[in-house]
Design goal:
Helix content: 10-25%
Order of helices and strands: EEHEE
Strand order of the largest sheet: 2-1-3-4
Distance between the termini: 60 Å
Number of strands: 4
Structural class: alpha+beta
Radius of gyration: 16 Å
Number of helices: 1
């Protein structure tokens, strides 16, 4: 049986497991992004504090293969254009 999971590339910690397909892994990455953004805001963290890279892995019969990556940029706000309009 095939399943998918998300792993923090740096720490190798599993963040989500037993996901039914790649789309579910993408949705889990989006939820994780939202949760972390909320936690940053609640703790008063400033812009550009965290960059997190996730591996999307496919697991077939206990064999794990990396099949994609997501990079989450957390707490990043658009910087206003400081140059005057011409």
């Amino acid at each position: 049986m095939t399943s998918y999971q998300l792993r923090d590339t740096t720490t190798r910690q599993l963040l989500a497991t037993d996901l039914p397909d790649y789309a579910a892994a993408e949705a889990a990455a989006d939820r994780l992004d939202d949760e972390l953004e909320h936690a940053l805001a609640a703790n008063g963290e400033g812009a550009g504090r965290i960059r997190l890279r996730l591996d999307v892995e496919r697991v077939i019969d206990g064999v794990t293969e990396t099949v994609g990556h997501h990079v989450l940029l957390l707490g990043v706000d658009d910087v206003p254009d400081l140059l005057p309009a011409v």
